[in-house]
UniProtKB/TrEMBL annotation:
This is Electron transfer flavoprotein alpha subunit apoprotein. It comes from the Bacteria. Heterodimer of an alpha and a beta subunit. Residues 8-191 form the Electron transfer flavoprotein alpha/beta-subunit N-terminal domain.
Amino acid sequence: MTTELTPTVLVYLDGDPTRAAALEAITLGRELGDVVAATAEPPTEATRETLGQYGVTRVLRLDAGETDLRLPAVVGQAVAAAAEEIDATAVLLTSSFVTKEIAAHAAHHLRAGLLVDVGSLHLHDGRLAGDKRVFGGTWDTSCAVTTARGVATVRPNAVVPEPAPRPASAEPGVLTVSVTTPAGLELVGREVHESDADSRPSLAEAAIVVAGGRGTFGDFDPVNELADALGAAVGTTRDCVDEGWLGHDAQVGQTGVTVAPRLYIGAGISGAPHHIGGMSASGTIVAVNIDAEAPLVEMADFAVVGDLASVLTDAAEAIRAHRGG
Ligand SMILES: Cc1cc2nc3c(=O)[nH]c(=O)nc-3n(C[C@H](O)[C@H](O)[C@H](O)COP(=O)(O)OP(=O)(O)OC[C@H]3O[C@@H](n4cnc5c(N)ncnc54)[C@H](O)[C@@H]3O)c2cc1C
């Protein structure tokens, strides 16, 4: 009689390990095998409890000694070392600028195939495989790595985070990893942007995005009001960034942030290909525009033809009334 070993899945948790994007990666990881989490910071009791509810069997803090575990090139080495140590079949990360860089370094060190921005995962002949939307949302593709071990970054909002049917113990542990900072690389400064980060979800991971374009004429009050009523992140177009109305951090599109929220509301945005390339994987797209023939109106699941100032303000008021606030 042969017994098949359950694959081990390493999920590297950057930032807050219990935020939605991290729990989504864990939820997908559970479909592949036993999930072991790795963190750079020691997890709190509350963090371990939450991770246990999502089926994480072990939480390993990566100890790199004196080496700074903030540079993606170094974290990638540490993640690769952890994957080798626990013999992980798959290594999963969330999908931000930083984690994609970490994933690339980890894949390089493991000599493993890399899948970026996948929305679902499975094992194909024992190898990591996933589905992803590409070319501005015009194609859905399936891809599989050809190496025994695979690395993947999970697109935010790809799945609803689900607690495990049976909670696990999330046993704490420390894994000492031997890593070196590559020659010529030094972290000389680090600046955390204040912006609205404290009160609003991050644009790349938000479940709802309200974006305003040049149709706002620089007045983002209605956009902010609706975003706050919905608990959404605020996005914009490059033209508004060029005008200095919002910072580049808020730009959605080909040369900005790629978003795939469950709900994207674009107000006063024409829907240029450069913008659509960064939001077309969104679940439901709503457009608000005075022009019924604007490309974003034509591609939207739902459109309101009207002045955004009144439409967004009325919508925010109705949502607040509905929520009794
Ligand atoms: C190399 C390159 C890279 C680029 N990268 C990006 C990118 O990453 N992201 C990006 O967004 N753009 C990018 N662009 C710019 C892009 O091509 C468009 O110019 C830009 O997206 C248009 O922004 P907009 O929709 O805000 O403005 P516009 O195209 O001017 O559209 C404004 C819209 O507002 C509507 N409107 C006007 N008044 C109202 C009102 N009162 N109520 C409701 N609607 C109203 C109008 O009908 C119109 O549809 C890039 C361009 C280049 C050349």
